[in-house]
Automatic annotation (TrEMBL):
It comes from the Bacteria. Belongs to the metallo-dependent hydrolases superfamily. DHOase family. Class I DHOase subfamily. This is allantoinase. Homotetramer. It comes from Planobispora rosea. PANTHER family: ALLANTOINASE. Pathway: Nitrogen metabolism; (S)-allantoin degradation; allantoate from (S)-allantoin: step 1/1. Coiled coil: none annotated. The gene is allB. InterPro entries: Allantoinase (IPR017593), Amidohydro-rel (IPR006680), DHOase/Allantoinase_Hydrolase (IPR050138), Dihydroorotase_CS (IPR002195), Metal-dep_hydrolase_composite (IPR011059), Metal_Hydrolase (IPR032466). Keywords: Hydrolase, Metal-binding, Purine metabolism, Zinc.
C-alpha cells in the first residue's frame, strides 16, 4: 500500500512527458506507473491536465540569515521557494554574517536555519583570501562546493581572489575533488558608472569582462584539473569559450538566470533599480543568444540568484543601488513564460531548473521523478496565468522586477518528501 499516488496526463519524467501515476511511500518515489494502472494508496490525487514536475533545485540563493535577516531569512525564503515549486535551495556563503568561510561559520548558519525551513536546504562554502586551509574541512562538513569572486563582491567581508590565490584555491579544491563556483567578471574591465542611468551602469560592466574572466577560469581548470562552474552567465560572449572548453574535456559547467532570459536592457524603466544585478541584464539580441546557449547545452542550469535587500537600498540610482534581483518564487513561471513562447517544452525547463542544478550540487535523489528519489513534486498548471504582485510574495521585501508582469504557469501544490507544503510548515531538512 502506498501513502500517495499522483496521476497526471502531463508527468515530466526523465524519458519524456506523458500520462503517468507516481506512487510514494515513506517520502520516496516507489513506482512510476501507466496512468490507468495506478496502484492503491491512502491518498490519491488526480491532476488531470495540470503537469507533474519534479521539485526544482535552486542552487543559487542568497538567504542572508544570520546577519542580514532583514534582507531575507530562512523561513520566508523557503516558503517563497515552496510556493514557486522549488523543493531544495543551496544557500550562498555571502551576505549572511558571518560568511560561510570556515566550519564554525557553517555551524552558525545551520543553527540559524534549523527548524525554520519549509524546503530542503544545502550550503555552499566560500573561498576568500586567507581561508585556503579551511576548505577541506568545510568540504568534509558538507558544503557542496566553494564560491569565489574575481571582482569585488558587494560586501567587504567577502573579498575577491587575485590570480595567484585563484590558482592556489583551485589546486587545493582539486586535491579533494571538490567544486569551485565562480562569479566571473574581470575587475580590470569594470569601471565606476559614469552616471545614475541604466545605460551608464551597463556600460560599466561590459560583456568582455565576463568573457575574459571565463577564459581565465577555463585556463586554470584545464591546468589544475578542478571541476569549475560559472555562475550567472549574462553575456553571450561567454558561450564560445565555454563550448570550446567542453569539447576539449575541461570540467566546466555554467548557469544563467531567469532575469537574463526574460528581461532586457531595452525595457528597464528609468530609475528602476529592482532590475540591477551584477553582471547586468543586457540587450535583446544577447538574450536570444543565451537561449541558443541553453538549447545547445553550453549553459546547463537556470537558477534564480535570488539576492534581495531592503527597499531602502534600492535607491533610484543605478550607480548607488544594491545589486541583486529578487525572484525565488517566480523563476519557474518566468522561465516557462518565455520558454513556451520560444517553443521549448516542460522537459527542457525541468532539465535546466531541476536535474542540472541537482547534479551540479551533488544532490543525489533530487531533481527528477525516478524510483528511489525523494518524492519532491510540483503540480504546475502550464496554461494558467498570474499577474505578479510583489507584496503578495513570500519574499521578506516586496521588491522584484517582475512586479505587474503577467506570467504563464502557476504552481498549484508542492510536495516535499511526499507531503504537501502548507503554511510554511518547517519540515525541510538541512542537507
Ligand atoms: Zn549570487
Amino acid at each position: 500500500m502506498h501513502d500517495l499516488v499522483i496521476t497526471s496526463r502531463r508527468a515530466v519524467l526523465p524519458e519524456g512527458e506523458g500520462p503517468a501515476a507516481v506512487a510514494v511511500r515513506d517520502g520516496r518515489i516507489t513506482g512510476v506507473f501507466d496512468a490507468d494502472a495506478a496502484p492503491e494508496a491512502a491518498e490519491r490525487v488526480d491532476l488531470g491536465d495540470v503537469a507533474l514536475l519534479p521539485g526544482l533545485v535552486d542552487s543559487h540563493v542568497h538567504v542572508n540569515e544570520p546577519g542580514r535577516t532583514h534582507w531575507e531569512g530562512f523561513a520566508c525564503a523557503t516558503r517563497a521557494a515552496a510556493a514557486g515549486g522549488v523543493t531544495t535551495i543551496v544557500d550562498m556563503p555571502l551576505n549572511s554574517l558571518p560568511p560561510t568561510v570556515e566550519v564554525s561559520a557553517l555551524e552558525v548558519k545551520r543553527a540559524a536555519a534549523a527548524g525554520r525551513c519549509a524546503v530542503d536546504v544545502a550550503f555552499w562554502g566560500g573561498a576568500v583570501p586567507g581561508n585556503r586551509e579551511e576548505l577541506r574541512a568545510l568540504h568534509e562538513a558538507g558544503v557542496r562546493g566553494f564560491k569565489c569572486f574575481l571582482s569585488p563582491s558587494g560586501v567587504d567581508e567577502f573579498p575577491p581572489l587575485d590570480a595567484a590565490e585563484l590558482r592556489a584555491v583551485m589546486t587545493e579544491i582539486a586535491s579533494f575533488d571538490g567544486l569551485l563556483i565562480v562569479h566571473a567578471e574581470d575587475p580590470e574591465l569594470l569601471a565606476d558608472p559614469a552616471g545614475p542611468g541604466y545605460a551608464e551602469f551597463l556600460g560599466s560592466r561590459p560583456g568582455e569582462s565576463e568573457r575574459r574572466a571565463v577564459e581565465r577560469v577555463i585556463a586554470l581548470a584545464r591546468e589544475t584539473g578542478v571541476r569549475a562552474h560559472i555562475l550567472h552567465v549574462s553575456s553571450a560572449l561567454c558561450l564560445e569559450p565555454l563550448a570550446e572548453a567542453r569539447r576539449e574535456g575541461v570540467r566546466i559547467t555554467a548557469e544563467t538566470c531567469p532575469h537574463y532570459l526574460t528581461l532586457a536592457a531595452e525595457e528597464v524603466p528609468e530609475g528602476a533599480t529592482q532590475f540591477k544585478c551584477c553582471p547586468p541584464i543586457r540587450g535583446e539580441a544577447n538574450r536570444d543568444e543565451l537561449w541558443r546557449g541553453l538549447a545547445a547545452g553550453v549553459l546547463d542550469c537556470v537558477v534564480s540568484d535570488h539576492s534581495p535587500s531592503t527597499p531602502d537600498l534600492k535607491v533610484p540610482d543605478f550607480a548607488a543601488a544594491w545589486g541583486g534581483i529578487s525572484s525565488l518564487q517566480l523563476g519557474l513561471s518566468a522561465v516557462w513564460t518565455e520558454a513556451s513562447r520560444r517553443g521549448y517544452g516542460l522537459g527542457d525547463v525541468v532539465r535546466w531548473m531541476a536535474e542540472a542544478p541537482a547534479a551540479l550540487a551533488g544532490l543525489d535523489g533530487k531533481g527528477s521523478i525516478a524510483v528511489g528519489n525523494d518524492a519532491d513534486l510540483v503540480a504546475f498548471d502550464p496554461g494558467a496565468a498570474q499577474t505578479v504582485d510583489a507584496a503578495a510574495l513570500h519574499h521578506r521585501n516586496p521588491v522584484t522586477p517582475y512586479h505587474g508582469r503577467t506570467l504563464t504557469g502557476v504552481v498549484r501544490t508542492t510536495w516535499l518528501r511526499g507531503r504537501a507544503v502548507r503554511d510554511g510548515a518547517p519540515r525541510g531538512a538541512l542537507l
